[in-house]
Amino acid sequence: MDNLQVIESVKAMQSHCERLRLAGKKISFVPTMGYFHEGHLSLMKEARRTADHVVVSIYVNPTQFGPKEDFSKYPRDFDRDAAMAKSVGVDVIFFPPNSEMYPEGYQTYVNVEKVTQNLCGLSRPGHFRGVTTVCCKLFNIVKPHSAVFGRKDYQQLAAIRRMVADLNMDLEIVGMPTFREPDGLAMSSRNVYLNKEERASALTLVGSLKMAQKLYAEGERNAVKIIRQAEKLITSAPFTAIDYIKICDAATLEDVLEIKGEAVMALAVKVGKTRLIDNSVLGDKLEA
Ligand code: AMP
């Protein structure tokens, strides 16, 4: 498919997808905020591999940003994104303006309760309410058979899975591995904010995950001990300020003290002014 279509209105997107469904086509959907990197492309390739029709949304969703966060300066480059999407065979980019997504009088929100409380839920109040609301809306607009998300945003994926199960949404949620730079830094649109020195310090995020994996492989099951080592490594680098480093139950995302079942180490660190997140399920190979 080399004809990439751009759709900006909700109604046009809904009728486009309705026609596809009536024709028996399988639609896969990748919601994004744009400013693509290889991580985004890996999700689009998975969608391409598994469906007849691939829709990608580019929408910097205001309701998931706090008042002091980077909504207005979040990087945007539609032409570059469109060229990248086209290169991996995306069929449609849904690119709505705010007036389409949140018209005057808007007042309905989706709130997933427990799994959004810990981790980023503590430092970004309202963030996941914005994420689940916009994803619910996008699912109603695109009517996909499947939607592809990255495990880099582990808690987001957990919240979406929970919403889809709890509200009986009729689509499959697919989780994909975290795509990393050759030196291990998790790809993120926000990495463009980092200067050279900050970029070097940012490597302590993946470094601490690797260290945790090593300690875990050697038999360490005390979460606090692992977290202390990670803190030491990260604070030893300049420009870093830890928001959280936690080891949580991989399903409930509640803190664990003693690692027994499947656990995920998740961290959020400010490097200069840029807040970065990363995670790894203990016992898993660090995703590449
Ligand atoms: P964003 O544009 O940051 O909202 O991300 C859109 C989708 O891409 C989400 O499902 C993210 O989890 C996913 N994503 C972001 N970074 C990566 C990465 N490095 N590897 C894999 N998926 C990613």
Layout of secondary structure:
Layout: E1 5-7, H1 10-22, E2 27-32, H2 38-50, E3 53-58, H3 78-87, E4 92-94, H4 98-101, H5 120-123, H6 127-142, E5 146-150, H7 154-166, E6 172-176, H8 196-217, H9 223-235, E7 240-249, E8 263-271, E9 274-281
Parallel strand pairs: 1-4, 2-3, 2-5, 3-4, 5-6
Antiparallel strand pairs: 7-8, 8-9
Helix pairs in contact: 6-7, 8-9
Word description of this protein:
This protein folds into two domains: 5-176, Rossmann fold (3-Layer(aba) Sandwich); 189-281, Pantoate-beta-alanine ligase, C-terminal domain (Pantoate--beta-alanine Ligase, Chain: A,domain 2, 2-Layer Sandwich). Helix content is 38%, strand content 19%. It contains nine helices and nine strands. It has helices spanning 10-22, 38-50, 78-87, 98-101, 120-123, 127-142, 154-166, 196-217, 223-235, and strands spanning 5-7, 27-32, 53-58, 92-94, 146-150, 172-176, 240-249, 263-271, 274-281. Strand 3, helix 3 (78-87) and strand 4 (92-94) form a beta-alpha-beta unit. It starts with a strand and ends in a 7-residue tail after the last strand. The mean pLDDT is 97. It binds adenosine monophosphate. Residues 32-33, 39-40, 42-43, 149-150, 152-153, 176, 178-179, 186-189 line the site of adenosine monophosphate (AMP).
